[in-house]
Specification:
This protein has 221 residues and is of the alpha/beta class. It has one domain: TIM Barrel, CATH 3.20.20. Helix content is 36%, strand content 16%. It contains seven helices and eight strands. A six-stranded parallel beta sheet has the order 1-2-3-4-5-6. Strands 7-8 form a two-stranded parallel ribbon. Helix 4 links the parallel strand 2 and strand 3. Helix 1 runs parallel beside helix 3. The longest helix is centred in the middle third of the chain and has 18 residues. Pfam families: TatD_DNase. One of its GO terms (molecular function) is 3'-5'-DNA exonuclease activity. Belongs to the metallo-dependent hydrolases superfamily. TatD-type hydrolase family. This is TatD related DNase.
C-alpha cells in the first residue's frame, strides 16, 4: 500500500496492520511535496515521517521509503524546485531506516539521476516504477543499485518495447500501478498479451469479472 503524503502514509500503515497480507511505504510523492512547506515547519513534518517509518518497521509493515521522486509532467501540482528539494531530503529517511526506495521519475530523468547519483551511498537500493524513459535513461538507472518497474505505460510504443527489451530480467519488476497503467488495445505491447479475463463496467460489478478500465493485480500475468 503506497504512501504518497504523510496522511496517506498513516492510512497505508493502518491498512497494512489490519491485513496480514499487506505491507506499505512511507513517503511523499513529488506532486505533494508542497505539504512540507505548507505544514509551517518542514523539519517537523520530516520528523513525523521518520517517526512513522520507524513505528511501521517495528510492526514489520513498512518495507520502503516512497513514493518519492520527480514528476515534471504535472508541475501544476508542485514546482520543480520544491520537488527537487524534498526528493533529496527523503534520502535521509532511507539512510536513517536502511530501507530501499520506491521511486517515481516522469519527464525528469536528468535531474532525477543527478540527485540519485549524489545520494547513491545513502540508500540500499530500490525500484524506479512505471518506467517510460529512453534507453539512455534505462542504462543510467542500471548503474545504480536499482530495479526498473514495468507496466502498461512502459509498453505503449514500439520504441518503448525496444527499451524494455534491454532491461536485464533480474533487474525488472512487473507491476500494475493499480488502478492505472493497463495495457490498452492501442498499445504496441497488446500484441504480446496472451491472457484475458472477462470484464464489466463498475456499475455492473461482478466478483468473477474485472472492473473494466481498472488495472487489477491479476493483470501482472
Amino acid at each position: 500500500v503506497t504512501g504518497g503524503s504523510l496522511e496517506e502514509s498513516k492510512e497505508a500503515l493502518a491498512i497494512a496492520e489490519t491485513d496480514g497480507r499487506l505491507f506499505c511505504t512511507v513517503g511523499v510523492h513529488p506532486t505533494r511535496c508542497k505539504e512540507f512547506e505548507e505544514s509551517g515547519d518542514p523539519e517537523k513534518h520530516f520528523q513525523a515521517l521518520l517517526s512513522l517509518a520507524k513505528e511501521g518497521i517495528e510492526k514489520g509493515k513498512v518495507v520502503a521509503i516512497g513514493e518519492c521522486g520527480l514528476d515534471y509532467d504535472r508541475l501544476h501540482f508542485c514546482p520543480s524546485e520544491i520537488q527537487r528539494k524534498y526528493f533529496e531530503k527523503q534520502f535521509e529517511l532511507a539512510y536513517a531506516t536502511k530501507l530501499p526506495m520506491f521511486l517515481h521519475m516522469r519527464e525528469a530523468a536528468a535531474d532525477f539521476c543527478a540527485i540519485v547519483e549524489r545520494n547513491k551511498d545513502r540508500f540500499t537500493g530500490g525500484v524506479t516504477h512505471s518506467f517510460t524513459g529512453s534507453a539512455e535513461d534505462r542504462d543510467k538507472l542500471l548503474t545504480f543499485n536499482m530495479y526498473i518497474g514495468i507496466n502498461g505505460c512502459s509498453l505503449k510504443t514500439a520504441e518503448n518495447l525496444d527499451v524494455v527489451r534491454g532491461i536485464p530480467i533480474e533487474r525488472m519488476m512487473i507491476e500494475t500501478d493499480s488502478p492505472y497503467c493497463e495495457i490498452k488495445n492501442a498499445h504496441a505491447g497488446i500484441s504480446f498479451v496472451k491472457s484475458t479475463w472477462p470484464s464489466k463496467k463498475k456499475e455492473k460489478y461482478d466478483q468473477d469479472s474485472l472492473v473494466k478500465g481498472r488495472n487489477e493485480p491479476c493483470l501482472v500475468r
